[in-house]
Predict the structure.
Amino acid sequence: MLAAIIVSVATSWYLVGLTWVVDLVVYPAFSLVGPGEWQRYHQSHRRSITFAVGPVWLVQAVAIAAWVFSGSSLTEPWAIATGCLAAAAVGVTIVKAVPAHDALAERFDPPMFRRLLFWHRVRSLTWTVCAIVAAIGLAEAASG
């Protein structure tokens, strides 16, 4: 069980770091890309970010599931909360961010970009809380 918690914490904090780098560095650079380069740049971003996020989501999901089903009554609430928060962040990505990126695929559209930024910040905050909750669960497991 401890290994599953550690992996849950590690993947959660990785996603926190990644999402805030995207928020503070990658997305602001979008507005600097000219119309002639936009499609190629955006397509490259989507490919790269999928590779950076997808495998970690999978590892995180497996680790959280192992943690939830480990049977530890001491950390079960933290495991369930971590799982719900991770699922919420992935859900926001699938339901809000991916369609926004789809809409931006042809051309940079400032209103759509602002919507993407809003939903990205929602998921950034969600992953941040997820990582904090997972870390509290790890502290509970270590002290119990």
